Amino acid sequence: MASFPPVRAVERAIELLQCLNRQPISTLDLLHRQTGLPKPSLVRLLQTLVGLGLVNHAPQHGSYYLTSAVHTLSSGYHSEPRIIEAAAPIADGFTARFKWPVAVAVFDTDAVVVRYSTIAQSPLSLLHSSINMRLSLVSRALGRAYLAFCPPDEQEIILGLLAHSAEAEDKPAQDTAKVIKMLEETRKQGYAVRNPAVRPVSNTLALPVFENGRVVASFGLTWFSSALSLKDAVHTLYPEMKAATEKISGRLKTLDGKSSTPRPLAGKPPSRKVRAARP
Residue 123 belongs to a domain with what CATH number? Predict the structure, then answer.
C-alpha cells in the first residue's frame, strides 16, 4: 500500500480516458453519466487532454473522441500473455474469414475478462471495444465455456462464490441445481451460448481452450441475432471454432517448446557427444 493518498486529478484523468475508449464519440452529458464527475471538472480535463493531443473536440457536434496519439500510452508495454500470443493470429484469421468479431477471455476470480478482441477488425460489431470487459461465468457464453470445463472441485468453489455475488447476471448461481444442469449440458455439447435474456440483439458461441488437458481460456464469436439463428450458427461455425481452439492449444505447446529449448552459451559451440573408445 502507498504511504500517501492517491492524486485525485490523475485518477480522474485516467478514468476519463478509459471512458472515452468505450465508444468512438462521447458527448459531455454521456461522460458525465458514465464517470459521475462534475461537468466543469470534465471540461477542464478534456481541454487538458486536447492540449496534449490525446483527444479531439468537435464543437459543432459537442463531442469528444480519442486521437491516434493515445497509442503512445501503451507503446512501451510488451508483456503479452502466452494465451494471447497463441490466440491472436487465429482470432484475426477467423474474423477475416467470417467477418464477425471474436474474443478471447481468461478467468479472473469471479468472472472471465476479455483480453483479446477482433472488434476493431470486424465490420459487424455492436461494440466499440470489449477489452478488459468482465463477463459473468453463469450468464455469458465466454464465462460458461470456461466454468463448464473446470475440474469439479474448482467449479464448486466458484459457484459458491458466485452465489453471494451482487451482480445481476450472476443471480442464476443462486439456483445451484439449475446452473449445474446448464453447465453439464454445455460440457456435453462442447460449446456454450449466452443466456438469451442478456442482450437479445446478439448472441455468442464460445468454446474452451485447453492446455495440457486443463481449460485456460475461452474463445467466442458474436453475431447479430437477426442475421443468424443459433441453430445455423452452431451448424456453420462450431466445427470451424473447434478447429481454431485446437490450433490455439497447439500453438501453446509450440511456445512452451521454444521457451524450454536451451540456447548455447555465446562464443561456445554446441557440445558434441564423445564416442566411447572401442575395446
Answer: 3.30.450.40
Task: Mention every residue, 6+ apart, whose C-beta is less than 8 A from residue 83.
Answer: 104, 106, 115, 209, 216, 217, 248, 252
Structural domain of residue 49, as residue ranges?
Answer: 8-69
| Phi-psi label, residue 213: left if phi above 0, alpha if psi -120 to 50, beta otherwise | left
Task: Mark whether 88 and 64 lie in a shared domain.
Answer: no
Residues 48 and 120 both lie in one domain? no
* Alpha carbon of residue 215 to chain centroid: 15
Q: What domain count does the chain have?
A: 2
Pairwise CA distance, residues 138 & 192, whole Å: 10
Closest by CA position to 176, among listed 142, 138, 230 = 138
Residues 130 and 189 in one domain: yes
pLDDT digits (tens, 9 = 90+) for 132-177: 899 999 999 999 999 999 999 999 999 999 999 999 999 999 999 9
Let me know if residue 151 belongs to a domain: yes
Backbone Cα Rg of the chain: 23
| CA distances from residue 190 to 168, 187, 193, 254 in whole angstroms, order as listed | 26, 5, 10, 24
CA 244, 250, 254, 256 torsion-angle sign: positive
CA separation for the pair 127, 219 (Å, rounded): 17
- 62 assigned to some structural domain: yes
Q: CA 252, 258, 260: angle at the middle one, nearest 5? A: 100
Q: How far apart are CA 190 and CA 196, in angstroms?
A: 18
Please state the pTM of the whole predicted model.
0.71
